[in-house]
Amino acid sequence: MTDWLRIPGYVSHRDGREMPTVTVETGRIREACEHARDELGFQMCVDLVATDYQGWGGQGVSGYIGTASGRDLMKPMTQGLQALPEIKPKRFSISYHLLALRHGAPRVRLRCWVDEGERVPSVISVWPTCDWHEREQFDLMGIVFEGHPNLERLLMPEDWEGHPLRKDYPIGGEPVRFSDEE
Amino acid sequence: MSATASPPTTRRWPIVADGQYDGSRIPSRVPTVLDVPEELRSSEDVLQINFGPNHPSTHGVLRLIVDLHGEEVVGVSAVIGYLHTGFEKSMESKTYWKGVTFPERIDYVGYQNNGLVYVLAVEQLLELEVPTKAKWMRMLLCELNRIHSHLVFLGTSALELGAISMFWYCFREREMLLDLSELVTGQRMHTRYFQVGGLAEDIPPGFYGECRKFVEWMPHALDDYKGILDRNEIWLERTQGIGVLSAQDAIALGQTGPNLRASGVDWDLRRDQPYLHYDQVDFKVPVYAEGDVYSRYRVRLEEMASSTNIVRQCLDKLERMEGMPWIADDRKVVLPPREELHTSMESLIHHFKIVTEGFRVPEGEIYVAVESPRGESGCYLVSDGGPKPWRIHFRAPSFVALEATATCLEDALVADLIAVVGSLDAVMGDTDR
């Protein structure tokens, strides 16, 4: 097995269904990416995605429980408030989905956590493809990537206020153009 | 190279060693931008023009800000987002059942493959087993959809370079595909035929026959295309050696799918990370090393042939599966059969609950990737255990493909720009989401 412990800034790791998740210190994510690319052979960063966990677990839902083999569909109380989801350490998670172009297509998810106002080192120097990925996450989620040479809005208009994919950004909160509200 | 015949060790790996990795031709400190050279910047010879967002050869609403020095392209920066509709945000407020309609509209040309990646992600979080007939049918439709997507690519990109007849030829076969789609799903595009758990309906009678006719016809159509383009002097002049992307750069820029294979990287998720039943079919993965516009065209052309081949193998399997289930028998997730609603109270309640409240998906996160016509189409899904996705994100291959525009356009002429943008085969709906 790959030696995740040698990744710079290693915090923890967990095996997932499709790929392991390795959490690293936010400040050392660039080093970790470089290590993953050069030492572990994950040549490609296929995706970079941020998730906002504000209000996570507030619903208290985990109703549909059990596995394919262990699920008893006739059992009562399989829908409802059964468990709270796992508590997250900070508000935003940033996931780097890496892929190694070799037999078996090994993948790994590097993960770091930030709170509002914290910065993440940019990994453009490691993977140029992260240019637009980082801009997209800045635009929609408001994550600031330290060292990005051109951190501007990508998908939303330049003068847009707010970051739409955040949980505190409401749906229907913006005025609709050419309507009476404007 | 077939899925079974060649062990992965015999492949041509472009990466010499893991450490020797550099995106050597990244044109400026911002990788997606081509900077105007210092000596030209002060001169008055550089003309900045807007290419798009409303230009027929931008495949939608791509805007390129191009700096021209005479006919040479000396600076490029792409502006996207004109088609941003907030699919990810919208899907967070819809139940999983209702969300099926969204991904098909993200990449509106490769709609089946995008629909597939979403239902696969939900199924994996649910740990739901899908009937084998549904898997084969999904493969069949995804491959038809791949041909459809490549036909649109070939027709439009040849049209932009002046080969107008290609457009009519390609859309002739595209029409056949849309008719097939209508026959089996009731819709020509954006079918909502893939459901969490399997397929919406059984495969209608008569489909296999019609599909066989298409499979028999398609090789002749491909010969037609080759006849028009392969020895066409103008086509060759305008595509060979144009918009070169090296293997190193392609990997550094995260390229996937045909764009990566045209740069000499032998990588196809259908073979290298098989999903559905792709490990049980035999197909060829075309790879070209030149990395130019012509290679990208050749890769897609040959992929149509191998997709036709896969469709034929799927038909062979499906024809022997008459009467087998097409959707999982899990009433907490899958809608009950229509006829039961008239007789069974239980079914009516389940139907009502799934449509209104939705089914709950266990807490967890997942990233699922499939080989869409444009490359790796991925779906990152986070569930908190509720009936709606907490976060859903699509890894859009077109988004990444357009990042390579600047690198491809180094030392290009303005006429090449159209060939290069067309050859990257970006769908703006996919890019902007």
Strand content of chain B: 5-15%
**In CATH, what is the class of chain B?**
Mainly Alpha
What CATH architecture of chain B do you see? Answer: Orthogonal Bundle
The number of distinct β-strands of chain A equals 7
In the residues of chain B, how many domains can be counted? 1
Calculate the terminal CA-CA distance of chain A, rounded to whole Å. 58 Å
Kindly report the oligomeric state of this protein: heterodimer
- The helix/strand class of chain B is alpha+beta
Report strand order across the widest sheet of chain B.
1-4-3-2
N- and C-termini, Cα separation of chain B: 34 Å
CATH topology of chain B: Cytochrome-c3 Hydrogenase, chain B
User: Residue-averaged pLDDT of chain B, rounded?
Assistant: 86
**Low-pLDDT runs of chain A:** 60-81
Radius of gyration of chain A from CA coordinates: 19 Å
Largest sheet of chain A: 5 strands, mixed
**Poorly predicted tracts of residues of chain B:** 1-20
On the 0 to 100 scale, the average pLDDT of chain A is 80
Structural class designation of chain A: alpha/beta
* CATH domain class of the largest domain in chain A: Alpha Beta
Core attributes:
heterodimer; A: 182 residues; alpha/beta; Beta Polymerase, domain 2; 2 domains; two-stranded parallel ribbon; 2 helices; 7 strands; B: 433 residues; alpha+beta; Cytochrome-c3 Hydrogenase, chain B; three-stranded antiparallel β-sheet; 9 strands; disordered N terminus
